[in-house]
Amino acid sequence: MTTLDLTPAPGAAPLPRMVLAQAGAEMRGMLRNGEQLLLTMIIPVLVLVGFSLAPLLEVPGERIAYVTPGVLALAIMSTAFTGQAIATGFERRYGVLKRLGATPLSRTGLMLGKTLAIAGVEIVQVVLIVAVALGLGWRPELSHGPVGPVLFVVAGTAAFSGLGLLMAGTLRAEATLAAANLVYLVLLGLGGVVFPVDLFPAAMQGVVELLPITALADGLRVLLTGGSPFPYQELLILCGWAVAGLVLAALTFRWE
Amino acid sequence: MSSPAVEVVDLVKRYGRLTAVDGLSLTAESGAVTAILGPNGAGKTTTIEICEGFRRADGGTVRVLGLPPSRRELRARVGIMPQSGGVPPAMRCGEWLRLVARFHAHPLDPDALLDRLGLADQARTPYRRLSGGQQQRLSLAAALIGRPELVFLDEPTAGMDPQARRSCWDLIGELRAAGVSVVLTTHFMDEAEKLADHVVIIDRGRVVAEGTPAELTGAERQLRFRARPGLNLDELLKALPAGSAAKESPAGHYIIEGEVGPELLATVTAWCAAEGVTAEALSIERRTLEDVFLELTGRELR
Fold this sequence. Notes:
The complex is a heterodimer. By secondary structure, chain A is an all-alpha fold. Chain A has ten helices and no strands. In chain A, helix 3 (63-93) runs antiparallel to helix 9 (212-224) and helix 6 (147-170) packs antiparallel against helix 9 (212-224). The two termini of chain A are 38 Å apart. By secondary structure, chain B is of the alpha/beta class. Chain B folds into two domains: 6-216, P-loop containing nucleotide triphosphate hydrolases (Rossmann fold), CATH 3.40.50.300; 219-286, Alpha-Beta Plaits (2-Layer Sandwich), CATH 3.30.70. Chain B contains eleven helices and 13 strands. Chain B has helices at residues 44-51, 74-77, 93-102, 110-116, 132-144, 162-177, 189-195, 213-217, 233-239, 262-275, 289-297, and strands at residues 6-15, 18-28, 33-37, 59-64, 78-81, 150-154, 181-186, 198-203, 206-211, 221-226, 245-248, 253-257, 280-286. Chain B is elongated and about 70 Å long. The two termini of chain B are 40 Å apart. The interface between A and B is large, with 35 and 42 residues.
């Protein structure tokens, strides 16, 4: 039988170590979960390959140049919004958030860990999607350097995280699961991911252009196809969603 | 004497119109094992969750290691084992324990702890595939991994098989020997009797009795036997020395209390012979904690 030294020696680990440990655990969880992989990797890659190869619709310019930024936006949404909402909803339901609250990891530490894990998964997604797109003949043209797209990814992640946490922190886990998947599907169809927004009736366009997915897809599209000017309006829309979503989530989040 | 590990004074907690905890006071001494006993719905979990900082009290004061339970610095000093759950279902047993270990400055070795709790073979098993008893053991491991000064164990052995229960009891004994304060709730009287230095029996949100197991069960011994139900005990009582008591509870089970010695035994067996009754399973015992518990909290189901 193993003897253990149970003499009390309490103490919290340094915050960076806690955050890294939590981020690692979250990231492994996301990459191991089959449904999550379907949303974050498989569907985006299928959409990318399908819509860039098959002449399914009329798009402005080269098809791959149009579709790739939309698929990147879809990938960001799938991780920061859909995946995060579902995972966090079930963590709340299974008492994981409550249990973690009884460890030295603070709520700030938990949120930093989650954010880091999302960034990690997004890096995997971007590498995968960019590699597939390059293989399909994509030749991006960066009109404002690499900082622009990164800025959009960060702002988009913040916007989608806020909305995901708002949903996960207030709805029941099952309702979050259903709603998050539904929103994913609807925004995949509506939000300028692959179907150009100007295909919709004029009355709808105004609304659709205010959606975070549209702002992210359109912004990335401008920046990755050598377009100008810099899409400030889209960035502003994303920042608006980010502030509103994160503030509302912070105010309404129920930990158990 | 060092200050108590937990001090609860006049605690009140209401859920809507229901008062779950109603002016409860208890003290858990430092370095001791304190067991909170009570029927379902007595307020055990509510009380322990307020001490853990999960719930807010509506009245009264609670001090854990001298601090209000909401204080962050307590998270490292206090280990908790909730009644159930708290682990992501897909996370592997060893992974969870290593994660919680990483939150602490001087944790126990996760593999040694898993081994000690008989979970070494389950280290790579996802939480949802563990049996109920294995999940409980993992939860206990996570409560101890950070080498806390105080642990709260909410029904630690619920769902464990007898071997696991024994090994959990041994571990609690070792915690006590190492100077860790333990506060646990339980439904098992033998657990409280065997482990606890101090037992607090609560019912309807109040303390109804407390003391060491010996104080609660008293020094008095009882004579017990089984016979056909409905014997008339009045005749027997007349023959017994003054101050004795006799009762049938439940039907067919007779308990005689008083100066239990050879004389009393002879009187009872003589009376049985006169009644033409064969007393079965005749024994002289101390009152058990279970007797005390049922006397105080009643026999009806809740």
